[in-house]
């Protein structure tokens, strides 16, 4: 399918890179771009085992939501715009495959929220993160008030949201918002390198691990442990488990089929 604002590449079998490309607006998200992302995510098939999301250029991952579109919205329209972004990001969060955000510059507002919907965030040294919405008279609308406290704790999250301050890559690493920081030329190579490590592992096990983490996070201890136990047991119904353990015992490389 042809997209106006997305570039889709498959640099290696099993890895797909989705690049948001609206360079004139620093890749800001409008409703058209959000709908294109939604269409792309909905159409992913089993050939993609790891998804990498990044932004076009070296200045910006996603600079935020499109203020020129939001400026004239009334309450029902604002609610619907927020719902669209939140639903698309939730769809990314609940994909059964790992999603890596390669943050190459500004990740502000909706850009920070998009990165947080991914499983893992790595960034370039020039990256900057923030939820500056209060300076525009609004609050984060694409689930930022939900995900940011979970990632970095309520104290840091409230400070970032209440002040609208923008933080640099080193601060993002210190507070746990990103996993690693690289120089700009290294970023995509490191993202693909991480994806390659995931490709060597059992696809079904990764899917079940993601389910256990995501669904267990909001449960109490007994509920989360019970969920893990159920999904752990489910692994033993898979061909991948048989292959992985047989390969280990016979000192050979496992050949997983995702079954």
Question: Describe it for me?
Answer:
The protein has a 6-stranded mixed beta sheet with strand order 1-2-3-5-7-10, with helices on both faces. The model has no long low-confidence stretch (mean pLDDT 96). Helices cover 47% and strands 17% of the residues. The radius of gyration is 19 Å and the shape is globular. Helix 1 links the parallel strand 2 (15-20) and strand 3. Helix 1 runs parallel beside helix 3 (75-93), helix 4 (110-117) packs across helix 5 and helix 9 (203-216) packs antiparallel against helix 10. It starts with 5 loop residues before the first strand and ends in a 10-residue tail after the last helix. The longest helix has 19 residues, at 75-93. The protein is an alpha/beta fold. It has 11 helices and 10 strands.
Question: What's the structural blueprint in terms of helices and strands?
Answer:
Layout lengths: L5 E7 L2 E6 L10 H12 L7 E6 L4 E3 L4 H4 L4 H19 L5 E5 L2 E3 L1 H8 L2 E5 L3 E3 L13 H9 L1 H10 L2 E3 H6 L5 E3 L4 H13 L3 H14 L4 H15 L3 H11 L10
Parallel strand pairs: 2-3, 3-5, 4-6, 5-7, 6-8, 7-10
Antiparallel strand pairs: 1-2, 8-9
Helix pairs in contact: 1-3, 3-4, 4-5, 5-6, 9-10
Summarize this, please?
By secondary structure, this protein is of the alpha/beta class.
Descriptive key words:
259 residues, alpha/beta, six-stranded mixed beta sheet, 17% strand, globular
How far apart, in Å, are the first and last alpha carbons?
Answer: 28 Å
How many helices? 11
- Characterize the main sheet: 6 strands, mixed
Mean pLDDT: 96
Shape: globular
Name the strands of the widest sheet in spatial order.
Answer: 1-2-3-5-7-10
Bin the helical content: 40-55%
Q: Whole-number radius of gyration?
A: 19 Å
Strand content: 15-25%
Number of strand elements: 10
């Amino acid at each position: 399918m042809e997209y106006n604002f997305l570039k889709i590449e498959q640099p290696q079998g099993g890895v797909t890179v989705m690049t948001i490309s609206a360079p004139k607006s620093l890749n800001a998200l409008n409703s058209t771009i959000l709908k294109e992302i939604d269409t792309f995510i909905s159409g992913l098939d089993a050939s993609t085992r790891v998804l990498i999301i990044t932004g076009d250029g070296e200045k910006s991952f996603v600079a935020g939501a499109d203020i020129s579109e939001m400026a004239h919205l009334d309450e029902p329209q604002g609610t619907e715009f927020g719902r669209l972004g939140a639903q698309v990001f939730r769809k990314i969060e609940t994909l059964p495959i790992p999603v890596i955000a390669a943050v190459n510059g500004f990740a502000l507002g909706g850009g920070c929220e998009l990165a947080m919907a991914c499983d893992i965030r790595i960034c370039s040294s020039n990256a900057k993160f923030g939820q500056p919405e209060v300076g525009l008279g609004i609050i984060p609308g694409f689930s930022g008030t939900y995900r940011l406290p979970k990632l970095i704790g309520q104290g840091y999250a409230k400070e970032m949201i209440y002040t609208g301050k923008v933080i640099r890559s080193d601060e993002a690493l210190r507070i746990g918002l990103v996993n690693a920081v690289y120089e700009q030329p290294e970023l995509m190579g490191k993202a693909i390198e991480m994806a390659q490590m995931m490709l060597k592992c059992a696809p079904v096990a990764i899917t079940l691990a993601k389910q256990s983490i995501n669904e267990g996070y909001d449960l109490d201890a007994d509920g989360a442990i019970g969920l893990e136990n159920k999904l752990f047991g489910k692994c033993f119904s898979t061909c991948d488990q048989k292959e992985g353990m047989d390969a280990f015992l016979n000192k050979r490389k496992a050949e997983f089929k995702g079954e």
